[in-house]
């Protein structure tokens, strides 16, 4: 039975790779999702329409929203963004289903470490009080170089808009975890 199941899954996965237009039968969708989740991750994803998302295009899109004002509980560039609204808007634009709440990002994607961080990963922070170790803010890794990590986020602080910030001092103390979505 296992050989038959494996053969069917191999056929479905192979057929999907050849023609992205194929539809996976409902009874196999969960199983295929689990198998695909175990495949090695890379820096790009391909969608049904043949387009792809990579960290560079994701960051370029996010950067196009620099300066859009901060607005609590909002994920609309015409009105403004809160932190999770901004992150979910950016990722959903590339076809990723991500949480709308900063707290829910803790269970999204694949957890990694700052040492293994990649551009496009999501940084998860406490709220503005770093002593209360409860998730309250998220941002997207914007760049990594010899000076450290910079991230793009909708800040309710001094900038009060979508901005790019260095991961040091205040935000380093608030850092909780990092997850890879791409």
From TrEMBL:
Keywords noted in UniProt: Hydrolase, Protease, Signal, Thiol protease
A GO BP entry: proteolysis
Sequence ranges assigned to domain NlpC/P60 in this UniProt record: 52-182
Keyword Signal: yes
Pfam name, any one: NLPC_P60
Signal sequence residues: 1-20
Name of protein: NlpC/P60 family protein
Recorded family membership: Belongs to the peptidase C40 family.
Lineage: Bacteria, Pseudomonadati, Bacteroidota, Sphingobacteriia, Sphingobacteriales
Keyword NAD in record: no
Organism: Pedobacter psychrotolerans
Gene Ontology terms, MF aspect: cysteine-type peptidase activity
């Amino acid at each position: 039975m296992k050989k038959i199941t494996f053969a069917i899954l191999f056929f479905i996965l192979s057929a999907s790779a050849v023609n992205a237009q194929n539809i996976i039968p409902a009874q196999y969708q969960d199983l295929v999702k689990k198998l695909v989740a175990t495949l090695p991750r890379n820096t790009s994803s391909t969608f049904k329409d043949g387009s792809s998302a990579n960290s560079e295009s994701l960051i370029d899109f996010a950067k196009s929203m620099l300066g859009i004002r901060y607005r609590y509980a909002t994920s609309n560039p015409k009105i403004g963004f809160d932190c999770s609204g901004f992150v979910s808007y950016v990722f959903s634009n590339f076809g990723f289903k991500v949480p709308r709440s900063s707290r829910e990002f803790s269970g999204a994607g694949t957890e990694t470490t700052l040492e293994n961080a990649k551009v496009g990963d999501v940084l998860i922070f406490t709220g503005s009080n770093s002593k209360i170790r409860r998730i309250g803010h998220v941002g997207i890794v914007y760049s990594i170089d010899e000076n450290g990590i910079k991230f793009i986020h909708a800040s309710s602080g001094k900038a009060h808009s979508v901005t790019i910030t260095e991961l040091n001092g205040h935000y380093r103390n608030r850092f909780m975890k990092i997850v890879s979505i791409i």
